[in-house]
Design goal:
The protein is mostly helical. The protein is built from 2 helices and no strands. The chain is rod-shaped.
């Protein structure tokens, strides 16, 4: 009975570790494949908008949004 409980404990620990690793890999893939390209595109558009005098505030806002997507937190 003790060996059964220890096996269940070991299995629970392994599933917990696998769950955390899977979540980290999924988060890294979402960042790399979705957020990074969108953030770079937004930052580039913001720089283009900053080249005109009228759209400088809009460009700064777009650059901030792009940087927020690249570096969340």
């Amino acid at each position: 009975m003790i060996s059964f409980i220890l096996c269940l404990l070991l299995l629970t620990i392994l599933f917990g570790i696998a769950y955390k690793i899977t979540g980290a890999i999924l988060k890294a893939c979402v960042w790399l494949l979705i957020l990074l390209p969108i953030g770079l595109i937004l930052s580039g558009v913001g720089v283009i908008f900053c080249c005109t005098i009228i759209l400088i505030p809009v460009g700064i806002g777009i650059i901030k949004a792009g940087i927020w997507m690249i570096l969340p937190g």
